[in-house]
Every structure is written in C-alpha cells, then in structure tokens.
Design goal:
By secondary structure, this protein is an alpha+beta fold. It is built from four helices and five strands, in the order ααβαβαβββ. The radius of gyration is 15 Å and the shape is globular.
Length: 134
C-alpha cells in the first residue's frame, strides 16, 4: 500500500464523490510537508480555514493554503519553494505543475497554483492554490 493510499484510509471513501475532497486534503498535507522541508516556515506562518481544519478538526474545507510572513519582505516570492514542492510530490508518485500567479493589482499577497497531472490518481485534476500574505 502506497503512502498516499495510507493517508486516504482516514476518509470515508465509500461514495465516489468523497475521493476528490480526500485527495485534495492529502495533497495539501503533502504540500505542507514539502514546505517544512524547504524551510518555508522559518519565514512564514500557516493560518486560515485549512489550518483550522488540519490542526483543530474543524468541519470546514478550503481549497487554499494561507500563509503570512513572520516579517515583512517586499521582494518575497514563492518561486524558490516550487522545486521542493515538486520533489515532495514526485517522491509520492505525483507529477505536478506549479505556477506563480501574476499580480493584477499591487498588493501584499503572493499566490501560486499547483495542479496535479498524474494519471495514477485521475479523480482530481486541480488542487489547492497557495497564498502567502506579506
């Protein structure tokens, strides 16, 4: 049994619709693990709805992961963390695309999107976006 299959065991997957949400949540956890290994949390804190669900079991689902920098950094970018995320997913059999979201309006928010391209888990094509507030 693969690591991803083990992670999915905690979900009730009897009804086919739950697999999509469960796989998104597992992918969120994989992304967080990759960010930990890359040292991202030396600079940022995880907060928001997904954080509350993961750490406190709140029955709330959010597709994005929200982060806030511990100290303001005007030139902050998520791009340096993309390779660590790709490695984390690849280690578990996922091929993912990660792209930075272009800012249309000047703001303190930096966003990136992650998309799963692996056919071994065809139920989910799009996964959460990652947003870091500066």
């Amino acid at each position: 049994m693969s690591v991803v299959e083990q992670m999915l065991q905690k979900y009730n997957l009897a009804d086919g619709e739950n697999i999509n949400g469960a796989l998104r949540e597992v992918m969120q956890e994989i992304a967080l693990a990759g960010l930990v290994r890359a040292g991202f949390f030396d600079k940022a804190a995880f907060y928001g709805g997904t954080c509350l669900r993961i750490f406190y079991g709140l029955p709330r689902f959010s597709e994005d992961l929200d982060f806030s920098l511990l100290q303001s950094q005007a030139d902050f970018s998520l791009v340096p963390y993309f390779s660590a995320l790709q490695k984390e997913f690849a280690a578990l059999g996922f091929e993912v695309e990660i792209s930075a979201r272009e800012k249309l309006v000047e703001s303190a928010v930096v966003s990136a999107f992650l998309k799963k391209n692996t056919s071994i888990y065809p139920m989910v094509r799009k996964t959460p976006s990652f947003t870091a507030g500066i």
